[in-house]
């Protein structure tokens, strides 16, 4: 860092450009191995999905009682993780936090990939995916699914803009400096996506204004998308879902899941691309603190969600809570609450733990915990109905996902990771122009 | 129209028109599901359906869409001036399960699929057991129809809640929403039936059943259409079911065929509805299981002949 300061502006900028564009130009065997293994998982999922299409959703473990399983749980998980784009770029960014510069684009890439997969897994869960068009031809305003389709689509659009627009100056730099250094199609892509960016003060002014509007706009949209997702459950009359705080409960849980995903991505991108000078311990420390903050908020909503019905023990609430606390889902419940909430909060309080490697482990624990938490929210409620479950095969009252549906779910998760990986290779993960700007380089001269 | 005009009209407006027509056609095609269900290559193929008089009618393939649309339209409108209700006398139910069998036969269901299900109930440890047939409650404030994203399930003017399995996308939101567990899903190919081949879908019978769609109790809307009592009601040997029209204030017993005043029956026997605290306003009333005709007898087997623990509280 100190040596950079002593050089002149031009050299500083060259160094930044060289460091941040290196991943775009270089071939990493580790990266290729990752892509190949992800593609293998996706191919397996497609194969399994062929059987699901042919034989029906009967290849899953879902039944007339437990009629939603890990597909819907994963849908909630994807939407949850996707909210991190809004948290980092908009909430933290708008309050003037400067440390998000090298993190924001990673968060947006994750947001875009995961919200797209949320849409995909809903189609996977449909009994008649061939009738997808009916959702638009025969839509009903009264159905929360219609609200969900609307807000998810809007979020995809705004997330795309929030990824692309702040990247325009970088795309301009890449167009100017990468010709001949990357394959022709790549350069053409940068050329087209840069939308003729030359970096005039007027262009910067428009960019800043547009971004500000988008950053404000994405807050209500992101809140809506996850609140509506929670309403898919909360608008029914079932114990465990019939809750007034499900909206904020989901949104706060989403920030936890998203922070975890960003921590994991930050760690591997920094290591894989050798960006230790740009994504520093300081950034991890800040992300760690943010993770603790959002986890504490989530803990508060957890207390409300479980203590309030637990105190009253109304008939059906009591059955539901017994299932979670001491019944068939107790192991999953307590492991999830411990590794997906309590432990990260406690560990995150210590400065020693807010280092890249421990935080990556905590992040992974949060993400895995977040997925299982969604299963715990969706499945146990369906296991107990208001009326007795009788005259059906014994397995109608339990839910153990089949190999098929696990394969398909893993495939969709792999697709999300694949999209993040592709985006993070195609474009500089750390914004060049913002980094240069923060180091006092007058970047406009270069363009 | 001269040459120039034709050229102009093929531009923007023409494109929009074509686009609209294409989209519309696409919609009709996908909505009716004919893509997968018929083979347009064979023009001599015949399709069959039961008409309003209850007779089989054969139609040419070219007329199939017309009849399907007609059946769907009729099924959505319902029978004007009616408000169908069912009264179930729990004191009389002896768990004969003839209702379940008749229903499964009529609607081409598999053994584990129930539009109506006879449950062994016990409200409290001290209250003893009774049997409770549970069809769809045909609520006047139905939680299931509200959540349907495509209007595939709907309530008709006569109070019956139906499902159109030519439109259902299989999202199963209605299953999650129904507090009475009244809905089932065709997780795999339905049970094959000879007569279902080339049969035009009747929304009032929900036959043929279709893979990937919902099915549910229909109050035998096809039977009501021809002035008959529902399958389950007619099949009961024990006089459990009363069925009729709340507007006329008359219900008829499915076993004895005697008719009585609905309001008097409900008032005198102290009728109640299921889970009234949920505000669903059911069209099915229950008469309390007092002075039951039989002692509770349970052999430890469920309807499918499998062992089932005697735990009627919550499955």
Structural features, described:
The complex is a heterodimer of chains A (447) and B (315). Chain A has one domain (2-160, 223-445): Formate dehydrogenase/DMSO reductase domain (Formate dehydrogenase/DMSO reductase fold). Helix content of chain A is 73%, strand content 0%. Chain A has 18 helices and no strands. In chain A, helix 6 (101-125) runs antiparallel to helix 17 (403-426). Chain A is globular, with a radius of gyration of 23 Å. The two termini of chain A are 25 Å apart. Chain B folds into two domains: 1-32; 77-287, Alpha-Beta Plaits, CATH 3.30.70. Helix content of chain B is 26%, strand content 17%. Chain B is globular and about 65 Å long. Chain B starts with a helix and ends in a 28-residue tail after the last strand.
Question: How much is the radius of gyration of chain A in Å?
Answer: 23 Å
How many helix segments of chain B? 10
The major beta sheet of chain B can be summarized as:
5 strands, mixed
Number of domains of chain B: 2
Biggest sheet: strand arrangement of chain B: 12-11-10-3-13
CA distance, first residue to last residue of chain B: 74 Å
State the helical fraction of chain B: 25-40%
CATH architectural type of chain A: Up-down Bundle
CATH-defined superfamily of chain A: Formate dehydrogenase/DMSO reductase domain
Based on Cα principal axes, name the global outline of chain A. globular
Give a quick summary of the entry.
Chain A contains 18 helices and no strands. Chain A is mainly α and 447 residues long.
Question: Which SSEs are present, and which pair or pack?
Answer:
The complex is a heterodimer of chains A (447) and B (315).
Chain A: H1 2-6, H2 9-25, H3 29-55, H4 70-82, H5 84-94, H6 101-125, H7 134-137, H8 144-164, H9 168-177, H10 184-193, H11 201-234, H12 246-273, H13 281-312, H14 315-325, H15 330-348, H16 356-383, H17 403-426, H18 432-438
Chain B: H1 3-9, H2 12-32, H3 34-37, E1 46-50, E2 56-60, H4 64-77, E3 84-89, H5 98-106, E4 117-121, E5 130-134, H6 143-147, E6 153-155, E7 161-163, H7 173-177, E8 183-185, E9 214-216, H8 221-225, H9 231-235, E10 241-245, E11 250-253, E12 259-261, H10 262-269, E13 284-287
Parallel strand pairs in B: 3-13
Antiparallel strand pairs in B: 1-2, 3-10, 4-5, 6-7, 8-9, 10-11, 11-12
